[in-house]
Amino acid sequence: MSKREIKVGNRLVGDGHSVFIIGEIGINHNGDVEIAKKIIAGAKHAGCDAVKFQKRTPEICTPKDQWNVERETPWGRMTYIEYRHKVEFGDKEYGEIDKYCKEIGMIWFASCWDESSVDFIEHFNPPLYKTASASLTDFSLLDKLNKLSKPVMVSTGMSKMEEIEKAISFMDKNNLMIAHATSSYPCKNEELNLKMIETLKQKYSEIPIGYSGHEVGLAPTWAAVALGACFVERHITLDRAMWGTDQAASVEVGGMERLVGNIRDIEKSLGDGIKKVYESELVQIKKLRRVK
User: How many domains does the chain have?
Assistant: First the structure.
């Protein structure tokens, strides 16, 4: 069992605490801050504890041989580097997001894909950072985050166990959360490998272990909670038919409300593993048990 707890904003994350539920907005806003605010409002309504964005410096994170490759977008045909800039928020947009989240009492943070993005997001003083699965082997970025002395959630998709072990040994264990993930969008159920949650909990008993899901449907995320995930993250959107590569692996607001509500029911039903006779059973003992 995980002994450590991490404080994120006004929430404690770890075994023995309510599951920390994150609505991953990512770039599902398609560069429109009003859409972003509607998704944040939807996540709040659904009962999420936090929302997460993704922040990239396009010139750093986009391979140079793809910069001038043209593609069709909702805004017309443009180069890939132009598209990457189109869906990135800047100071103005994140300022609005920060203000809005404070107004409605929602924690927000981001996956930063490069060191310049960390510097940018740090201006807003988020209580948490996440490293994307693609960044698990980027030790320069991991070092940058380590030096902030803030909680960091590392995602473990597309990684071998040796790569996970190397990254975890490098990070500050006092500020670490580990998310099991499979980086397919959407992910087939047979590739989710949810029992890795138990494997990680046994191997890293001092670190909170959670789940970042990219499947279609809700049942695997509920199973992840039953297996011991103390935080979960699912992509959230207004409409899965919207433009964007992550939309198909996302959950609409109504689905997120079901996801959260059933997670809370699962939490209550798991109990503490110690057998006891409940007061509600006493009448049944009296009525049905012939030999005591």
Answer: 1
Q: Which of 258, 179, 168 is nearest to 217 (CA)?
A: 258
Looking at residue 147, the DSSP 8-state letter turns out to be T
Joined tokens for residue 79? 């180069």
Strands 20-26 and 50-55: parallel
Across the chain, the runs of DSSP E, i.e. the strands, are: 6-8, 11-13, 20-26, 50-55, 70-73, 76-79, 107-112, 129-131, 152-155, 176-180, 209-213, 231-237, 251-252
- For 175-186, write each residue's pLDDT tens digit: 999 999 999 989
The pTM for the full model equals 0.94
Domain of residue 84 covers 6-288
1 lies in a domain? no
Nearest alpha-carbon partner for 101 in 36, 161, 56, 21: 36
**Euclidean distance between CA atoms 113 and 131, whole angstroms:** 7
Q: Would 214 be classed as within a structural domain?
A: yes
Given a cut of 50, is residue 225 above it in pLDDT? yes
Q: Could you tell me the two tokens for 84?
A: 């990457």
Q: What is the 3-state secondary structure (H, E, C) of 159-196?
A: CCHHHHHHHHHHCCHHHEEEEECCCCCCECHHHCCCCH
Structure tokens at 184: 């397919």
| Among 51, 10, 15, residue whose Cα is nearest residue 177 | 15
